[in-house]
Amino acid sequence: MSNFGARRTAPEAQFQTASLYDVDFRPCTAVTALGEALNYCADGAPSEARLDRLLRNIASCLPKGGVFAFDILVRSDGEPMHYRSWRKGPDWAALVEVSEQPQENLLIRDITVFRKGGHGYRRSEERHRIGVLDGAQIERLLAGAGFEVTVSPHYGRHPLAQRRLAYIAYKRSNEGLLPEG
User: Fold this and answer.
1) Cβ–Cβ < 8 Å for 102, 73
2) Per DSSP, what are the bridge partners of residue 147?
3) Which tens digit of pLDDT belongs to each residue from 38-87?
């Protein structure tokens, strides 16, 4: 949903446009980051220190029992992901090429989109740099930030794509949390 669509749906809501790592989280009962948001490397790789700061920042805005739900692409000892796929509709087509670079914990997703406009098609291209994360490390960081976590390969009855895991993290009490850094 675009920011415009979100404003129509929730006209009283406050919106921020920023990197997930720079958002000023306000007190709330839930935070979601769906679609591999923690993996994206648009403004730098998701290092352990950066992820730790983010998780502590999110925990600081949640009350006891508050929830942080997100999914990530995780590392694997299996074959690296390398594939092409496409989808189409009556006036559009999207082509995707994925190439994983395990030695760099990186996945490159090249996307080419064709959309009908007037008498022809408009072409656009994007390159997504995705950091491939260590699932056990994320669980440790969540625990250190004050969360209890459940990990699953699906959201309810909806399975996630290959090597994606959903994390449902509930904030424990504020007691015993270590300060950032």
Assistant:
1) no
2) 171
3) 998 876 666 888 899 999 999 999 999 999 999 999 999 999 999 999 99
